[in-house]
Design brief:
Elements lengths: L1 H12 L4 E2 L2 H29 L2 H4 L4 H19 L1 E4 L3 E6 L5 E6 L3 E7 L2 H5 L3 E7 L6 E6 L1 H19 L3
Antiparallel strand pairs: 1-2, 2-3, 3-4, 5-6, 6-7
Length: 166
């Protein structure tokens, strides 16, 4: 009987992870194709003009980078997740080098929602957390703006409540 209770307690403490929306992956892959596709065309034209048509075939190398980058971007996107716990926020990311950041709500000084022109076009925003230690600032990229604002408001509220006793 006790093992069932212990297993339930462990399940209750296990964080509920939230992944990033697929719009971020779509945006990053589109940027990859646009920039490396443009590089392929420019490189092909320049090599053809200055080195001859045989050398222009080397312009196809960036296309291999598109295929490789496509896979890497997918793996990176799947590695990003965050979890809201009772006392802190967990942010996990990374494929080869896994990073897990724990930001206690009471240590948060500022929570920002930012969105550049490309992110706005894709309907995305980022949440950036600032703490007293500059090295522990954390960011959650590519959220839907409504979720980013909800997270900002919740983290700000929790941060104010936790730091009130300091």
């Amino acid at each position: 009987m006790e093992t069932g209770t212990a297993a339930q307690d462990d399940a209750a403490r296990e964080p509920v992870w939230t992944g990033l929306p697929p719009g971020l992956l779509k945006m990053r892959r589109l940027l990859l194709v646009v920039w490396l596709g443009l590089l392929t065309v420019v490189l092909g034209v320049l090599l053809n003009l200055f080195a001859g048509p045989a050398w222009a075939a080397f312009a196809l190398l960036p296309l291999a980078l598109i295929a490789w980058g496509w896979v890497l971007l997918g793996r990176n996107w799947r590695s990003w997740k965050y979890a809201e716990r009772a006392d802190d926020l967990l942010i996990s990311r990374g494929v080869l080098w896994h990073h897990e950041t724990i930001v206690p709500y009471g240590r948060m000084q500022l929570v920002e929602v930012t969105s550049g022109p490309v992110e706005r076009h894709f309907g995305l925003a980022s949440v950036q957390l600032h703490t007293a230690a500059a090295a522990t600032d954390a960011t959650i990229p590519g959220l839907v703006p409504a979720e980013a604002e909800r997270l900002r408001d919740r983290l700000t509220e929790l941060g104010e409540a936790r730091s009130a006793g300091l």
